[in-house]
Amino acid sequence: MAFSAEQALTLLRKAQANDRLAHAYLITGPVGSGTREVASGLTGILVGETANPLKHADVHIAEPESKSRRITIDQVRELERSLQMRALRGGRKVVVVFDADRLMEQAANAFLKTLEEPPRQSHILLVSNFPELLIETILSRCIEIPLVAGARRGLNERQRRIAESLRNFFKIPRPELPQIFGLVREVQTLLAEAKEAISDETDAAFKGEAKRFREASGVDSGWLDDREDFHKALAEARYRNERAVLVDTIESWWADVLRQQQRAEHLDLPDFSADTAALADRLAVSDVITRAAAIGGLRENFGRNVQEQLAVEVAFLEAFAA
User: Fold this and answer.
1) pLDDT per position as a tens digit, 161-194
2) pLDDT tens-digit series, residues 14-50
C-alpha cells in the first residue's frame, strides 16, 4: 500500500510515540510524490528538530556529486565515519542518502554491513524515485515507505513547447549535430521569451510604483533606487525559476523513458507516453541513465553560474547525441 506524504509522516510519528521506529528506511515514489518532504520530516522526528532538520549537526547527507552523477564509495565511507562518531548533541544520528539508486555498485556493497547493523542510536534513510535500480541486498535491509504520485499539474505553454520539440526531435531516425543544435536554439528561444516577458512585467511594476511615489511626495529619493534594485533581483529570480521549470520538463522526459522500461504506472508527461515508450524500446537502461544525468549536470552548472549557452550545448550533446 502506498501513502501520501502526509499519511506517511502521521504513521511515522505514531511509530516514534510507541518507540517502534526502524533503523533503516527506504522512501520511494515518483517525482512529485514528496519523497524529500518525508525524508526531511522523518529526520526531524528522529533528531527532534522541526525548523530545518536536514541542517541539524547530527544529520549527514549524501547525494550524487561526481561528474558521472553517481554516489561514490568515498561518500559512503564518509557517512560511515560520521555514524561511528559520537552525536554532537547527544541524541540520534541520521544519514540521508538522496537518489540512492545512483549508488555505485562498489559503494552500495560497502554500505550493506552498516545498513544491517548501524551503530546504536543511528538511523539510515534512503530516498529513491527509481527503487527498481537498487540492488536486492539493499532493498532487503530496509523498510520501504512507498508514496503515491502527487497530483498532476498541467504543463504551461513553454513546457508543452519543449516537450513537443523533444517529440519531434526523436522522430528523426538518427539525429546529428544540426538537429541537436536546432534543439538548443529552441530552448534558447523559450528562455529568451521568458526573460523578455518577466522583464516587461517587472519594469511595468516598478514604473507604477515610481509614478505613485512621485505623485504622493513630489520628489525622487533613495527609496526608488532601492525599489529598482528589488525589481531587478526579482526579475532574475523569476527567470531562474522559469529556466529550472524547463530543465524539470526535460528531466521528466528521461524519467518517463526509464519508467516505461520499468513498466511503472506513473508518468510525469502522460500526453507523451507513446513517445517515451518508443524510446524505452530503443535505448538501454544504462544509456537512458547517462542521458538523464547530463540534464542533471545542466542543472548543477546553472547553479554554479556556468555560462548559460555553453552549459546547454554541452548537456544537450551528451543527452541527445545518437
Assistant:
1) 999 999 999 999 888 999 999 999 999 999 999 9
2) 999 999 999 999 999 877 788 999 999 999 999 998 7
The answer to whether 100 and 134 are in contact (CB under 8 A) is: yes
Q: Cell 530496509, residue?
A: 142
How is residue 222 written as a grid cell? 533613495
Judge contact between 131 and 101, C-beta under 8 A: yes
Using DSSP's 3-state secondary structure scheme, residue 66 falls into: coil
**Domain residues of the chain, as ranges?**
5-146, 157-320
DSSP 149: P
Q: Which CATH superfamily is domain 5-146 in?
A: P-loop containing nucleotide triphosphate hydrolases (3.40.50.300)
Q: Where does the pLDDT of residue 220 fall: very low under 50, low under 70, confident under 90, or very high at 90 and above?
A: low
Of the ranges 58-62, 75-79, 146-150, which one carries the lowest mean pLDDT score? 146-150
Q: Give the span between the Cα atoms of 156 and 153, in whole angstroms.
A: 9
Q: What are phi and psi of 98, to 5 degrees?
A: -80, 150
Give the sheet arrangement for strand 143-146, strand by strand: 59-62, 93-97, 122-128, 24-28, 143-146
Rounded alpha-carbon distances, angstroms, from residue 51 to 41, 55, 289: 10, 9, 34
Q: How far apart are the C-alpha atoms of 262 and 250, rounded to whole Å?
A: 19
CA-to-CA distance for 71 and 82, rounded, in angstroms? 16
Asked if 71 contacts 98 with a C-beta cutoff of 8 angstroms, the reply is no
Cβ count within 10 A of residue 175:
16
318 and 290 in contact (C-beta within 8 Å)? Answer: yes
Q: How far apart are the first and last CA of the chain?
A: 40
Sign of CA dihedral 38, 43, 45, 46: positive
The pLDDT assigned to 301 comes to 84
What gap in Å lies between CA 273 and CA 276, rounded to an integer? Answer: 5
